[in-house]
Design a protein that fits this description.
Helix content is 87%, strand content 0%.
Amino acid sequence: MAVKSLAWRGLLEKRFRFDPQKAVDPRELMRVERDVLVERRRLEERFRLGFAERKQVHAQILAARQHMMPEVVAAQTAYLQAEVDLKTARGLELLGK
């Protein structure tokens, strides 16, 4: 369907000839201006809602980070202690103990 629509549009575009002597219908100008205004308002609303949504997601991410920080610190501490324990065990092994 889209291919047929594009072909039809192309045909209309090829046949179009601009005549500067003919006046543009004021109703047509008003329709175009109204359509542009409607689309502008729609896009601005989408942008506004998208921005608000992203602010909310950002706040949720910050809250999740703060909530998880004690667990991250505990895991890092346990990891570092495990590294020290492993190095100590390997050192004792080399000494034959």
